[in-house]
Model the fold of this input.
Amino acid sequence: MDKKDIYEHLANIYLDASSKKKKKSKIDPKISRNIFIVSIFILLGLGTTLFSNFSRSKLNSEVALVLQNDASKINFNFNPAKKEIYTINLNKLNLSRFNQLGFAARNMQPNKNLSMRVEFVNSFKERSEVYVKDIPGKWSDFRINLSKFKNIHNWSEITELSFSVEEWNATAKDGILYIDNVRLLR
Done:
């Protein structure tokens, strides 16, 4: 073999290899059309879902100060005690610009009537309570106007918010009450 044969042989190998790299695999047009149609439906579905969630959030938007967003458990047993209390320390929080207290509650014994006492205390030792009656066995959202807490005259330094279950206000001697999403609303 001479140099010319070697160069031709190398050129053939190189050109064949480079032409194989340049070849594109052809995708069946039916498959690409189906992929296109499916992607359009997915995008339309996502757009519709996002738009409906955005619309709902715009309609139901509220200015809130979340005091507690985790569920808390009041496990009451009235054999030795007369009352079970769950308290949130508010550290002299100014609530004068808020109008409502909102929270969710659930009674784990729905066939037993249960009422709960909700109480605010300010730094001047003013106390006022409101009773929430007939808490159901499924999560329910409650809202109480702060104007119903008649004995609180100064909302600028609220020290605590408490939720309590009292023996005289429950038909069962023991049970569980959950409180969640405690917030103040304007």
